Amino acid sequence: MTLRSTLLSLARHEDLNFLLTNRIPRRLTTRLVGWLAKVEQPLVRDLSMWAWRLFSDLDLSDARKTRFDSLHDCFIRELKPGARPIDPAADVIVSPCDAIVGAHGPIEGTRLFQVKGFPYRLEDLLGSVEAAERYRDGVFVTLRLTASMYHRFHAPHDARVEAVTYISGDTWNVNPIALKRIENLFCRNERAAIRLRLDATGEAVTLVAVAAILVASVRLRFLDITLDLRQGGPRTIPCDVPLAKGDEMGWFQHGSTIVMLAPPGYVPCIGIAEGTTIKVGQRLLTIPPR
């Protein structure tokens, strides 16, 4: 076996994976890796990139740049123009990010699921009962970004950003192994709920960007601050930012999860199934006819 295949085999061992990614000083490790990833010294950069490739199928063929100043520079890379065509259909909400589709479907009252048998409540995710009521009996889709994916996220439709609610929290890993073991995991971690008012319907959808170990930082292009676990929370930042479908909204400093919430009547598009891969701009939800 090669070194890479051996390491991947160990990483797939659930008990060992959970131990290595969660039973460590998560915040300290996150800050240390965040600092190391920004080091631009060529040897450090090259060793970091080599280690990253050992654990992931990194594909940089659609990246705008071919050389990077640091590991972090590669993590938040931009893509070549046209690399992610945006579906133009007016009745379609597109995926805001490259991701693997996780749990999704109807919201049962205000209850949704991180995996089968592990429910959590909208009010715990969003930080208030009022925010949760907007999506009572609505629909949700969980989008998980892996380490090697493109980490920027985009507007799912023509809309205005109304508010960003930042909620400080922990940095548990949010991979499938942890989701099957830690209850209310998304509600424990640092997260930013970004509320968008759709131009087409006047209804609100919310993208909840959930951070994780090594990735506890979210950057939004329309805010002059970085949202990370060193800041207090929860706190809501009012906004009034117009976005066209496909416009870049921001990025995870490394990558993590987005939970999309929509009102009743919205349904997943054909082909949306747990475990499938989706890219920015591809069909995700259908807007009900008015």
Show the helix and strand layout.
Blueprint: H1 3-11, H2 14-22, H3 26-37, H4 42-55, H5 71-75, E1 92-94, E2 99-106, E3 111-115, E4 118-121, H6 122-126, H7 129-133, E5 139-144, E6 152-154, E7 159-167, H8 176-179, H9 185-188, E8 191-198, E9 204-210, E10 217-220, E11 226-228, E12 235-243, E13 248-252, E14 257-262, E15 267-268, E16 277-278, E17 283-286
Antiparallel strand pairs: 1-17, 2-5, 2-16, 3-4, 5-14, 6-13, 7-8, 7-12, 8-9, 9-14, 10-11, 10-13, 15-17
EC number: 4.1.1.65
Keywords: Decarboxylase, Lipid biosynthesis, Lipid metabolism, Lyase, Phospholipid biosynthesis, Phospholipid metabolism, Pyruvate, Zymogen
GO molecular function: phosphatidylserine decarboxylase activity
End-to-end gap: 58 Å
What is the H/E order? HHHHHEEEEHHEEEHHEEEEEEEEEE
Strand content: 25-35%
Strand order of the largest sheet: 12-7-8-9-14-5-2-16
* Poorly predicted sequence stretches spanning 5 or more consecutive residues: 13-19
The tally of beta strands, per DSSP, is 17
- Rg value: 18 Å
Largest sheet: 8 strands, antiparallel
Instruction: State the helical fraction.
Output: 10-25%
Number of domains: 2
Query: Mean pLDDT, nearest integer?
Result: 84
How many DSSP helices?
9
Class from helix and strand fractions: alpha+beta
Shape from CA axes? globular
